[in-house]
Amino acid sequence: MQAWQVHELGEPGEVMRLAEVPRPTPGEGQILLKVRAAAVNFPDALMCRGQYQVRPPLPFTPGVEICGETEDGRRVIANPALPYGGFAEYAVADAAALLPAPEALDDAEAAALHIGYQTGWFGLHRRAALQAGETLLVHAAAGGVGSAAVQLGKAAGATVIGVAGGAGKAAVARELGCDVVIDRREQDVVAAVKEATGGRGADVIYDPVGGQAYAQSAKAVAFEGRIVVVGFASGSIPSPALNHALVKNYSILGLHWGLYNTKNPKLVQHCHEQLTGLAARGAIKPLVSERVPLAGAAEAVQRVADGVTTGRVAVLPAPENGAAS
């Protein structure tokens, strides 16, 4: 089979190599899956660089999120068990963790549902307890993680303010349903949030960026607001001023979604049921901005690493078959 492999660490476009390799052999409790679609995630780029908390042994195949097909024809969502990731014709996953792919979504959309939308659901509902009528501020609103939070916020009845970088990404955020869109390259983010909220600030802030975005969040958060720290796509990890959190009376909430897979896997299943229901009624639909063949995976991962994509990019090892009938 064909698979992308990383033999040395570095930039994805330089270290990912397409090779002919044997199909992986599942271990105990694992299952072999034919990859129908693989979604590109920022952690794929970090793994190529050796900067992610998970460091698979070299050589490894990146690709942490797929829609796959079992030998008996079931269409499923899975997080491949590294080093046999999703940028290949076949991958390996833990059988107990497989989730049914929603019928309302095609292969690429189903592949893009799991990590981003589970992260959004846990961040907004489990951690921040977002309520209908509250104001949600989403940084990087046109990206894969941010776009999911925008849709989930709207589905929860929140007023959503999206922050994006540049006119093109701002337009995408607007199309996603943001009530207010702030172009961070053209506008003062904090002033724009205060203006949009009558000076109050945002009740919940969803931050997958870190760095300057977090500094803006601390200034734009409302009384008793909640800042959900999801990641550091900017490459800069902030050091929060806890005295500021005390004086302004807001909460800083960390979210490591992957921990729920080991600490409380039943919640992951419950979340998937909620997401499947939302997809069935059209309340959420992953934004898949590009669908590329397997040969284009390395370039796609590099573009995600460079921050020039919107939504999710999907890698299709074979022509897409669409949603199950």
Percent of residues in beta strands?
A: 15-25%
Which CATH architecture of the largest domain is right?
Alpha-Beta Complex
CATH topology of the largest domain: Quinone Oxidoreductase, Chain A, domain 1
Quaternary structure annotation = single chain
Element order: H for helix, E for strand? EHEEHEEEEHHEHEHEHEHEHEHHEHE
CATH class term of the largest domain: Alpha Beta
Task: State the helix count.
Answer: 12
Number of strands: 15
Q: Let me know the CATH homologous superfamily of the largest domain.
A: Medium-chain alcohol dehydrogenases, catalytic domain
**Cα-atom radius of gyration:** 19 Å
The overall average pLDDT, rounded, is 95
| Proportion of helical residues | 25-40%
Overall number of domains: 2
Structural class: alpha/beta
Unreliable parts: 321-325
Distance between the termini: 28 Å
Based on Cα principal axes, name the global outline. Answer: globular
Sheet having the most strands: 7 strands, mixed
List the helices and strands and how they pair.
Layout: E1 2-6, H1 12-15, E2 16-20, E3 30-39, H2 42-49, E4 66-69, E5 75-78, E6 90-94, E7 99-100, H3 107-111, H4 114-127, E8 135-138, H5 144-155, E9 159-164, H6 167-176, E10 180-183, H7 189-196, E11 202-207, H8 212-220, E12 221-229, H9 242-248, E13 251-254, H10 260-263, H11 265-280, E14 288-293, H12 297-305, E15 312-316
Parallel strand pairs: 8-9, 8-11, 9-10, 11-12, 12-13, 14-15
Antiparallel strand pairs: 1-2, 3-4, 3-6, 3-15, 4-5, 5-7
Helix pairs in contact: 2-12, 4-5, 4-11, 7-8
